[in-house]
Here is the input.
Amino acid sequence: MRETKTQRIGEIFRHLYYSAPISCTSLSMKLGKSQPHTMARINELQRGGYIVETGHAPSTGGRKPQMYSLRPDLFYILSVALDQFVARIALLDLQNNFVVAPEKYELKLLNNSDALSELAEIIKEYIAAGGVEKEQIAGIGIGMPGFVEVNKGINYSISENRSVAGYISSTTGLPVYIENDSSSIALAEMKFGMARNVQNAMVLNIGWGVGLGLVVDGRLFRGSKGFAGEFSHIPLFENNKLCNCGKSGCLETESSLCVIVEKAIEGLSNGRLSSINPADLDREDLEKSFETIRAAAAKGDKFSVDLFSSAGYEIGRGLSILIHLLNPDLVVLSGRGSLAGRIWLPPIQQALNDHCIPRLFENTEIRLSQLGYDAELIGAAALVMERCEHLRLNPHVNYSH
Here is the structure.
């Protein structure tokens, strides 16, 4: 089937977005086209105002190659990152800079019949207050927990028969693309983070649950319906603790950030010594409570360190199962929990030492995300660029080429 002009431009856009600044030589290799052909496309897009020159690469013996990037303000992307309790929204340019600082809104996502309408109102409110005309926004990318079927735009954990993408698009007038939060984070790590240029990787989303995004043969792996990566619900324990999925003994019942907060509250009430003031922990404010525990652990509070060590070891036990099955090159610790930093690494490594066949994991690296808590926002923005053939382009730029 012959490639259309829109598809050709979309492919170039994606490479510039993910790899900029990039030379004509490198771009031609990615496109599988000759350098003269690629240079002609670059010149055409420069005349149209799509791309800009961004200096020269270091010389490798000859003339320094000219580097190119997408024009950062060509258009903007509205990025939405959801967890079970909070919606974070940001406006990004085409170099992943926050044009408008991320805003946080309380939103109970699950078991809330009004969640979709509330989310739509929050997004419209953000757009109205953002200082950028809606016509300059190419689209909306949304990362959210739940059973997300990407092609239909449905999150079955919210609604069985209503498309989240369709509903938000109809209320905002913008194209909308949704993805499971852990897969969105994996996309960010694969394109901009620690998993860049890695063929096989597992990206952990350590949060109120423990999600997983999979990179297999250099591509995001979603499974047959898009539900792959429900790492939280691997049955590991005979602990008689009910998980929010309705089963008992799931990984997240001993390892999520919710569990860390709960164990901290219980431990302090039972007299555990800690620098944490019990009044600073609140089951109704998990975000503040987690940050209190994280900060205490960073200062060496033994009780807090023990909480992370216990959760990390159980995460490592779960990882050992996946490593036996998938034999990845890399495991990335990402999501909100990655803000706790290197404290996760020793207990996870110890669990792998205890439970993995050495030959299976001796070449598997464990790395902390450098994208941190922004990973999901960056990944959600990338959802829009993944569909750049359908972009809503800035009308103030001349595209008549």
Summary: The domain at 194-370 is CATH 3.30.420.40 (Nucleotidyltransferase; domain 5). The longest strand covers residues 98-106. The CA atoms of residues 268 and 307 lie 12 Å apart.
